[in-house]
Amino acid sequence: MRSYRHVLARVLVLLVGAELVVGAGAVPALGTGSASEGTVLSAEQPRLSWRGSRLRRSVRRVGRCTRRTCRTFTFRVDDLHPQALLDVRIRWKNRRRNLDLYLYRDGARVASSTKRRSRSERVRLLDPAVGTYRALVVPRRTNRRGTSFRGRLNLAIPLIDANGLVADCTRDVSRALRTLIASLPDGGTLTFENEGCYRIDEPVKVVDRAGLTLDGNGATFRAMTEGDQDRRHFWFIGGSDITVRNLTVRGANPHAGTGDLAYQGKRAFQHGFAFHGVQGGLLENVQVYDVFGDFVYFGTDVRNKKHVPSRSIVVRDSHLERNGRQGIGIANAEDITIQNNHISQVRRATFDLEPNSPADVIRRISILDNTTGRGRLLWMASAGKGFNVNDITIAGNTMVARASGGILRLETPEGGMRGPFTIENNTFLIGGTDRPGFSFVRAHDVTVRNNQADLPAYRAMTAVGAYGANTVTVTGNAFTGARTVLFCNAASAGCTDSANAT
Predict the structure, then answer these.
(1) Is the pLDDT of residue 89 over 70?
(2) Are strands 131-141 and 98-105 parallel, antiparallel or unpaired?
(3) 482 Cβ partners below 8 Å, 6+ apart?
(4) Predicted local confidence at residue 126, as pLDDT
(5) Is pTM, for the whole model, over 0.85?
(6) Is the Cβ–Cβ distance between 385 and 410 less than 8 Å?
(7) pLDDT at 94 over 70
(8) Any bridge partners for residue 19, and if so which?
(9) Within 13 Å, how many C-alpha atoms sit on residue 273's CB side?
(10) Distance between CA 251 and CA 274 in Å, rounded?
(11) 26-32 mean pLDDT
């Protein structure tokens, strides 16, 4: 795919009563009433600035402007790209002075800026029509010493990709992108501008598509407004065999990470990628930064009452850093694999297995060979409603920053059990906590084997705790710094501790 910039924009500038600056060249001194013709702005030279001489007399009405009291800047627009942006701005130093800015095209006013208690005015036109423009600067409040100003004209010509989308983050393309994706046939592939930047201030919602592939080609999709609770950056509802690869999502959370301000409840569902009832998918070689919600979320297709889970989705080879809620959130999903990712700076749990209702299921989840950095709370949490959290495998993961507390806390509601859980061949750095590093409340068939876990010796912690659990096997682990390897309360049965070191 080949990108292009339209370079046919030409602006013929005629300046009256001002000094002209083109690019970084010298400032020619122009006398009042003189003109400079033939100055051309294009995509290669899109900026022009000027200086207005001292304005000494206040003017109440635009109609009373004269050559002595007001200043004008006249230019012509020819052959402009339809998505270009014309930006005219003036600035001055003293907030006690007040200048207004009016923009005319072929004698008719098309825009104005008349703020009070300011030191600048600005007008912008998207897709300006061909014609002769006149910027008029009117002194509303000045004095005998006069008010001077600096003006700037900027001609922004967007980068347009081969799909017709603006690819330099100067325009919100959310709706256009949704329309474009909806127009693709099932089984189609959409490839974006190499290293392009796409502004998405609204959710990119993809509904009931089959075999669709979105190849970012190294592009970034950026939210530039904070948005509301209903925004998921990429939101897949229903459908099957969805592939997303080679792209970056950047949210608008200015405090993303482990700090107190990172979590904002009114925006906590702004996930990087959300899968609701999707049947089969691949998310690979993506990056997510600075979102208010989870990096990736798996949940229910909420359009019906059947609680259809997401199924058979792989997230691999991706970099996920700085957010406002969970790292990977799983609420209703089966056969999910999270493998070989880097996940760091997570505000809450790095992995969260939490059914939203008793009908939801979390089954056959594999968390394999990931590298995890700093997280605010647990490495893995599993609370929520219902008992259907089954066949969870956690293997080959490496922590490179110590957890603030324990590693895993499973709390099954009373009346049932969750499991099996297999935790093997991981390297964990456990933080100080009054609870065990691994805590299982009402779980069955738990296996913790061949892990390397470093615990703070001064806390004299228990490595694994079982409460109302059945069949807990802890074997072949190195729990450096632990006081006790395994604690099982009286309500537990079938606890085995063998070949562990502390």
Answers:
(1) yes
(2) antiparallel
(3) 437, 453, 455, 461, 462, 463, 502
(4) 83
(5) no
(6) no
(7) yes
(8) 51
(9) 26
(10) 14
(11) 26
Outline where 114-251 has alpha helix (H): 174-183
Transcribe 285-311 into DSSP letters: S-EEES-SS-SEEEE--TTSSS-PPEE
Lowest mean pLDDT segment, chosen from 41-55, 236-250, 298-312, 345-359: 41-55
Compute how many other C-beta atoms are within 10 angstroms of the C-beta atom of residue 448: 29
Residue 134 has pLDDT above 60, yes or no: yes
461-484 confidence digits (pLDDT tens): 999 999 999 999 999 999 999 999
Question: Which among 76, 205, 100 is positioned nearest to 153, based on CA atoms?
Answer: 76
> Are domains 10-156 and 187-377+384-397 of this chain identical in fold?
no
Q: From CA 96, how far away is CA 35, in angstroms rounded?
A: 31
Which of 427, 475, 476 lies closest to 455, judged by CA?
427
- Domain residues of the chain, as ranges? 10-156, 187-377+384-397, 402-415+428-502
Give residue-wise pLDDT tens across range 401-455.
Answer: 998 888 999 999 999 999 999 999 999 999 988 899 999 999 999 999 999 999 9
**Residue matched to tokens 């006790």:** 484
pLDDT of residue 1: 38
Name the nearest CA neighbour of 453 among 406, 404, 393: 406
b vs e for 285-295, b when ≥16 Cβ sit within 10 Å of the residue's Cβ?
A: bbbbbbbbbbb
**The architecture CATH gives domain 187-377+384-397:** 3 Solenoid (2.160)
The CA distance from 419 to 438, in Å, is 14
**Closest to 500 measured CA to CA, from 462, 467, 444:** 462
At residue 10, does pLDDT exceed 60?
A: no
Domain 10-156, CATH class in plain words: mainly beta
